Prior knowledge:
CATH topology of the largest domain: Glucose Permease (Domain IIA)
Low-confidence stretches: 271-276
Order of helices and strands: HEHHEEHHEEEEEEEEEEEEEEEE
Radius of gyration: 19 Å
Bound molecules: zinc ion
Shape: globular
Helix content: 10-25%
Number of strands: 19
Oligomer: single chain
CATH class of the largest domain: Mainly Beta
Distance between the termini: 47 Å
Amino acid sequence: MKKFILFTLLLMITSIYLGYTMKYYVVKSGDTLSEISQKLGVSPNSILDLNVMIKADKIYSGQKILYSKPNGVFETVNKGEALWYIAAEYFATTNDILKFNKIKDLNFLFPGEKLFIPFSIMCKTSNKKSGIIWPVFGEITSPYGWRINPLFHKKEFHSGVDIGAPEGTPVFSAISGVVTYAGWFGGYGRMIQIFNGHMLTRYGHLSKIDCYVGEHIKQGEIIGRIGSTGWSTGPHLHFEIRINGNAYNPLGYLPYAHWSGEGKRLPTPYQEGMGY
Ligand SMILES: [Zn+2]
């Protein structure tokens, strides 16, 4: 209990200094995640991302839920990771990240440091010209179409594109729609399905799911984190587009991607000034 009070106090002190506040909510019996998020005026996706142990469908009374105002998530700086890369992962600008974390000198960024990334700055640099946006910042590691399965070494039809990115990279909804599936789905591992009444999008192999079935999602909202669950040889997103049950090549719908130095395709952010 003492630890809890001390931690709460620490959160309050950092809140005064920083541009956000962190608080705890203790779950009451009969609470559901959507009710809690409505009551607190907080996005369920932010709650699910901030609380590793919270499962949308397994909430019980007495559980302590950490939430932030405004809605946001934390990003831990890895060793040797540059701020421009973190900004690119969130399709945000470095300036916005610096502002929210009151960082004046980039040399004071150290490994293990936690940066607060508010929802309001995410996907601001996404290219929205084609209607759908890139769900993750990474390189296409396996295209749509016939291929030799990397795990089973048999010819198969790859119904989506694989986008390689480090474990924990944020995944955003490519479209606005309703979550029709969120959970384990065979070879897809942890998978999310979002449907807008016409187009169905699938996000596979996730390490974490930040949304729940029935939730209305806006384009560019964080829905999960990159992982390597299911039939997978390394951390990546399997991104799939289906219309009337048929799979289509996502590259025919996604905004322009440029060729990276290694000959792989990388999303091109719409706005200038991201430093790459
Ligand atoms: Zn795939």
